[in-house]
Design goal:
InterPro entries: FPG_cat (IPR012319), FPG_N (IPR035937), H2TH_FPG (IPR015886), Nei2_N (IPR044090), Ribosomal_uS13-like_H2TH (IPR010979), Znf_DNA_glyclase/AP_lyase (IPR000214)
Number of helices: 6
Largest sheet: 4 strands, antiparallel
Enzyme class: lyase
Number of strands: 10
Order of helices and strands: HEEEEEEEEHHHHHEE
Strand content: 15-25%
Low-confidence stretches: none
Protein name: DNA-(apurinic or apyrimidinic site) lyase
Shape: elongated
Mean pLDDT: 95
Helix content: 10-25%
Keywords: DNA damage, DNA repair, DNA-binding, Glycosidase, Hydrolase, Lyase, Metal-binding, Multifunctional enzyme, Zinc, Zinc-finger
EC number: 4.2.99.18
Strand order of the largest sheet: 1-6-7-5
Radius of gyration: 20 Å
Length: 268
């Protein structure tokens, strides 16, 4: 699942494959930009911003993409067989003399002027893995609405950028509270450590092929994806529920014994 760490890894792969080279192939398979042609332009850089990717090319243009739940960019050597999914799921192809980047299942893909990037990422809070990281600002953002459930506050990219469902669940476990606890009720000492704990988790995983929050070799995650399995600490069965208004898929996992605070009733 793409979150701040995996998006940064994708940006690194794309930058390594494309930056400083002339595009010899360009195919944007979304109706609005289907006629756009970037061939002949040099790719300047590929930069992550939270969970967004900004591929900048000469001429003042930026290709903006967002992976959301299951989008991905794959890089192939020319002549190598593509293996990211069926052709009808491809939304973008960018290639040079040696490599081809293919974007699969991209829910957001748009071409804009580089000077207009703020229109798509200007609303984001401090990037947990970016040069603009500011823990004090991130904490102030999180506490703007004390009644908001902690899990929803963490997922709001306007507060801090880079957290998705996995890190939301894992952070709440490490803090010992449920994702439904109003953030204003989080104990003061845990509130103070929240931004840097989030940063530490993403930093630890920024270059790892397999995400880990536990430090264990036998199990990578404390609660995420472990519904009905025993908690790694207390052996109570981990629970799962969706969080939010239902407009997006927000799978949420927690241990009802280790984490204190409100939670949906079993079977709800």
């Amino acid at each position: 699942m793409p979150e701040g760490d995996t998006v940064r890894q994708a940006a690194k792969r794309l930058h390594s494959a494309l930056a400083g080279t002339v595009l010899t192939r360009s195919d944007l398979r979304v109706p609005r930009f289907a006629t756009a042609d970037l061939t002949g332009r040099i790719v300047l850089n590929v930069t992550p911003r939270g969970k967004h990717l900004l591929t900048r090319v000469e001429g003042g243009l930026t290709l903006h993409s967002h992976l959301r739940m299951d989008g991905s960019w794959r890089v192939y050597a020319n002549g190598q067989r593509w293996s990211g999914g069926p052709a009808h799921r491809i939304r973008a192809i960018l290639g040079n003399a040696e490599r081809t980047a293919v974007g699969y299942r991209l829910p957001v893909l748009e071409l804009l002027r580089t000077t207009d990037e703020d229109h798509v990422v200007g609303h984001l809070g401090p990037d947990l893995l970016g040069p603009d990281w500011d823990p004090s600002l991130a904490l102030a953002n999180l506490l703007r609405d004390p009644a908001l459930p902690l899990g929803e506050a963490l997922l709001d990219q306007r507060n801090l950028a880079g957290i998705g469902n996995v890190y939301k669940s894992e952070l709440c476990f490490l803090l010992g509270v449920t994702p439904w606890l109003p953030i204003g009720e989080l104990p003061a000492e845990r509130t103070a450590q929240l931004p840097e704990l989030a940063r530490k988790l993403l930093e630890h995983n920024r270059d790892r092929p397999v995400r880990s929050t536990t430090g264990r070799r036998d199990q990578n995650l404390f609660v995420y994806g472990r519904a009905a399995r025993p908690c790694l600490r207390c052996r109570t069965a981990v629970r799962r529920a969706d969080q939010g208004d239902g407009s997006r898929d927000r799978p949420t996992y927690w241990c009802p014994a280790c984490q204190h605070g409100p939670a949906p009733a079993p079977g709800s």
